[in-house]
Amino acid sequence: MVERLTRRTLKIVEADLAPGLSGIWMRLERNDYIVVNNVHAITELHRRHIIAHELMHVVSAFEDPPRSPGITSCGDAATEQRVEALACELMIGLASVGGVGARLTAMEMYR
After folding, report:
1. How far is 111 from 104, CA to CA, in rounded Å?
2. Which of 8, 12, 95, 99 has a Cα at 20 to 30 A from 108?
3. Residue 12, φ and ψ in degrees, nearest 5
4. Cβ distance 28 to 69 under 8 Å?
5. Do 91 and 111 contact (CB within 8 A), yes or no?
6. What pTM value is reported for the model?
7. For residues 32 and 20, what is the distance between their CA atoms, to the nearest angstrom?
8. pLDDT in tens, 74-108
9. How far is 38 from 12, CA to CA, in rounded Å?
């Protein structure tokens, strides 16, 4: 869905990142990459949340993409808060596929 929106290939890869970085979005000439820190992602759920957070950076930048290829900056604190809120909503929405009980559990985790 994100690839259709951006008309760019999106790849998710794992790598050792600097301490304190759980994930990054890299926008290269033809492809976007979400890189997940394979040391920092503690559980599969945490890994999915990192991906959701970085996906929200990609979607948020759709109308005003970075000017040059490379690792995107995280922006200011307000941007990070907005992206994190969107990632939480995405995770709650995905959990809702499991029914009302799954949605309530996800809402408790993310709010």
Report:
1. 10
2. 12
3. -110, 125
4. yes
5. no
6. 0.76
7. 22
8. 667 888 888 888 898 888 888 777 677 766 776 67
9. 12
Nearest-CA neighbor of 56 among 100, 10, 102? 10
Give the per-residue SS3 of the chain: CHHHHHCCEEEEEEECCCCCCCEEEEECCCEEEEEEECCCCCCHHHHHHHHHHHHHHHHHCCCCCCCCCEECCCCCHHHHHHHHHHHHHHHHHHHHHHCHHHHHHHHHHHC
Of 23, 20, 92, the C-alpha closest to 57 is 23
N-terminal to C-terminal alpha carbon distance within the chain: 26
Mean pLDDT of 45-64: 84
Question: Distance of CA 15 to CAs 18, 34, 41, 66, 110, Å?
Answer: 10, 10, 11, 23, 26
Tokens of 5: 């929106």
